[in-house]
Design a protein that fits this description.
By secondary structure, the chain is an alpha+beta fold. It has two domains: 146 residues, no CATH class; 208 residues, Heat Shock Protein 90 (2-Layer Sandwich), CATH 3.30.565. The protein is built from twelve helices and five strands. It has a five-stranded mixed β-sheet with strand order 1-2-3-5-4, covered by helices on one side. α2 crosses α3 and α11 packs antiparallel against α12.
Length: 410
Amino acid sequence: MLRVLRPLIERTTWRRWSHLVVGGALLMPYWFLGISMMPLLPLANGAVKAVLMLVVMPAAATFVTGLVPTVRLLESSLAKELLSGPAAALVPGSAASWESRIRAAAWFTLHLGVGVVVSGLSLAVPPFAVVMLLAPGVSWDTRFLEAWGWEDAWHQWPAPPIGLASLAVLLALIVAAGALLSRLAPWFLGPTAAERLAAVESEAVRLAERNRLARELHDSVGHALSVVTLQAGAAGRVLDSDPGFAREALGAIEESARSALEDLDHVLGLLRDDPSRPAPQATLKDLGRLLEQTRIAGVTLDAEVDPGVEHVPAAVSREAYRIVQEGLTNALRHAGKVPVRLRLGTDGERLEVEMSNPLGEHGGDGADHGGGRGLGGVRERVTVLRGEMTAGADGDRWRFRVSLPLRSGT
């Protein structure tokens, strides 16, 4: 018994019923239009005229209305809010193609058509059921019985079951119609294949941007923290014996921290979609400061940099700066303050980066212990620019080489 009565107390049932009633109410203007135009139709057959004016014309008019792009937005919002179930996953939006317009128009016609049937029965069945339930206790007027053709053959004892059955049928119809529309809504109002593809492409762009920002943070802030750690250690060891070097190291720590903070602020601005905060734009023109900070950290750095690298294309220059920065960070993190050799120059239409250092205590595997991105981030940059990269142990040294084309397609 409780299972039968459960739909009566569930919010979903009555929310779906309200959705259907809204559809019935929206159909009324089309119906009134059909009734007003019925006398103008040059047809003798009244039944055909009624079907055309009360069924065909309203259905055609609702379909045409449903082709308006905004109808999809309104109907998907209404279905998401009231139908629940599968319809709750809808993402409301205007129709962007003719396929989505036609689907939305078909849904609008279905919604209004089913809604007007349920609305009409909702108005007619409850009063009928009340009359049937009260029939055994009421002396009906003879004229009322004659109007229904019952006359003296009226038997009142079946009336209450008939009334209860009519209410049960109405409730079952409301539940079934609401469940059906909830299941059909995602197909009619959900994204088309083209819209799903566009959403996937948009998500891919978003993930690519997040990966790029992650590389920027890892390369800039990670390098700064590695350098600051070594600079602070070096300053602490010579604080009494060489105050001048300690002051220089502290100044470098301040500069490194400020630079990392600027990079972090830029990246956070991008994550907040703040157009006033552009992405960090360090290039090979800023390489001198990077090398000096590394030397102050106590690293013996043998660097040969071709002056012409400052004139390479901006995109290559930015990525090359980050690649050198990550190579130095990798050496500091995994080999310590060992001598590092850097060669950077152009060879024809390519930019060549080569870095080597003695293997450290970790064997120079180049991996980022502790979960960092390490050389994986460098490989992503190289892949984007269609370059080449090799990294690995060579005897007792770690060698890291990158070759980047200066022009696309070379």
